[in-house]
Amino acid sequence: MNAVVLVGGFGTRLRPLTLTVPKQMLPVAGATMLERVVAHLGAHGVDRAVLALGYRPDVFLDAFPDGRCAGIELVYAVEPEPLDTGGAVGFAAREAGIDDTFIVVNGDVLTDLDVTELVARHRATGAEGTIALTPVDDPSRYGVVPIDADGRVTAFIEKPPAHEAPSKWINAGTYVLEPSVLDRIESGRRVSIEREVFPAMVADGTLFALERTGRWVDAGTPETLIEAALAHLDGSAGREDAIAADATVDPTARVESSWVGPGATVASGAVVEGSLVLAGARIGEGAVVRDSVVGAAATVGARATLDELTVVGHDVTIEPGAVLRAARVPSEAE
Question: The whole model's pTM is what?
Fold first, then answer.
């Protein structure tokens, strides 16, 4: 079974962390986002993952020089230009020579979806495409997907105003597709699978969906990246905090509901709550990091305070005593 993994985006919502590192290569409590996505696919019978690459493909190639990730064979399909979601799927599938039923996943979605069940439902209905749906409180950021009693999709409404959404069941970013879908994707131009391909399939009555609850995190923002990491602490969701084996946390420091990465240090009297401290970062004496992300090899000076989803980029230094709330360092203007 082949899977196309969409990892070509710029990760703008996670800047400055993604200025040099694609978001799928950011750590989620000890393993990269991509490794967690691919490992989940492998557990459901996928043996080849085609990475639809765009932004910084070199980072992926350098990270997996043997062409394998989580025990799964990787194929690299580097877009010559941004092709949007449908264009990326078409380009990657053709580059990999896919000619049978295949899976597509968004590389920034972490889920416990039973992909095996999704594939079985797809085959049982004879669908051209089957998409997983998940319920959310606010569907306005996503594609809302109403279905009939047989599971056939009756509409595909991309990012409707919340008060106009016909349901709270949204496109969860995992699809099972037949190769005939590739004929619907014109080569060499930007094609949105959500706005062009799926609505055309709805019109033809060939798109089905499966509604399932469960863990589902779109880890494309600082808030949801933290949420995803905390759900994977030490490989289980039951832990309140996790500290990498070679990290150093002073006995007088307090770490709660957080991840402290490899080689990181948390000095005396410091407090880290609901946050991610990435590899090699340094939290100074008496500093407070709350609901924030500190990039790899960054330094937070003594008695500095980071709060309200502040994001500090890699290799950045925060001066002692600084107070930052909902900040991005460096900012877009720098």
Answer: 0.89
